[in-house]
Amino acid sequence: MRTFLAICLFALSLPAVADQRLFYQPLNRDASVSPAQWQQLWRATVAQGGKTVIVQWSAYGDSDFGGAQGWLANSLREAHAQGLQLVLGLYMDPAYYQRIEALDGDGLSSYWKAQLGRSLSQYRQVRQHWQIEVAGWYLPMELDDLHFRDTGRRQALYSQLQAFSRQLDKPLHISAFSAGKLAPRVNGAWLDQLAGLGVSVWWQDGAGTGRLPALVRQSYEQALPCRVGVVREAFHQVSGPGQAFKAQAAQPKLTGGCHAEAVFALRYRPWARGVLQQN
Would you kindly state where each structural domain of the chain is located, as residue ranges? Predict the structure, then answer.
């Protein structure tokens, strides 16, 4: 009876809409987190209602975070042991945003093809050596309606993602954000088209970066079809243009509506304080 009562009281203490899906962005400085700390962190994540961790990347530039027996792989195996599902990110080029800013037309298409090739190689490496059970794969290259405002670019992207996702053994996840360059209705239709490939598409709500006014962000969100998920940003950016990114923790605006919701990021949640250093 006491055990049942304790479980009921614990359930009542959870937020009405829990952090069921959390993004985790691996950084090299997280190598200093001990195995015991990782275990405690994942246990706390589950206690807070966590069910899935979306790992933003498993290779970033020249770093693979120690590979199959490195700190990242070991921490994710512990996360799975604690009952968390994993959506594992693939390869991220540190110069991605500078490259897509500089390239156009065939150059951009060729760059994307090359980066998808790097992610496919990372996918094969992880499957062969990491021995981690995953529920899906995440492509770290974020989309936006500035660099993909052109219809031709969006169509080329569609074809590349279609071919790429067919080579994976689990569903592909990808995220996008709005820069105010496509009308909300057009942006929603674009993301819906990508979701039609069987890809799990996530739209970032932009509340943390604050690049767009709140009413504009709301109009973009309202134009999204229900099958496009929403990433709630749990931070407030305090760095200015041209400065290194810096942010403070903030409460994500979870709504529990028709969209699947995820929180960015674990690093900014209260139970990660003192374990994962914030940016």
Answer: 14-272
Q: pLDDT per residue over 46-91, tens digit each?
A: 999 999 999 999 999 999 999 999 999 999 999 999 999 999 999 9
Per CATH, domain 14-272 is 3.20.20: yes
Q: Is there a contact between 206 and 212 (Cβ–Cβ < 8 Å)?
A: yes
Q: Which two tokens stand for residue 21?
A: 């899906």
Contact yes or no for 265/234 (Cβ under 8 A): yes
User: Considering the entire predicted model, what is its pTM?
Assistant: 0.92
Alpha helices in the chain (DSSP H): 2-13, 35-47, 71-81, 96-102, 105-125, 151-165, 184-195, 214-222
DSSP state of 17: S
Residue 6 token pair:
């304790």
Do residues 180 and 216 touch, judged by C-beta distance below 8 A?
Answer: yes
- Distance CA(150)–CA(31), nearest Å, equals 41
Rg from Cα positions in the chain: 19
Q: Which residues of 91-101 are buried (b: 16+ CB within 10 A; e: fewer)?
A: bbbeeeeebbe
- d(C-alpha 86, C-alpha 134), whole Å: 5
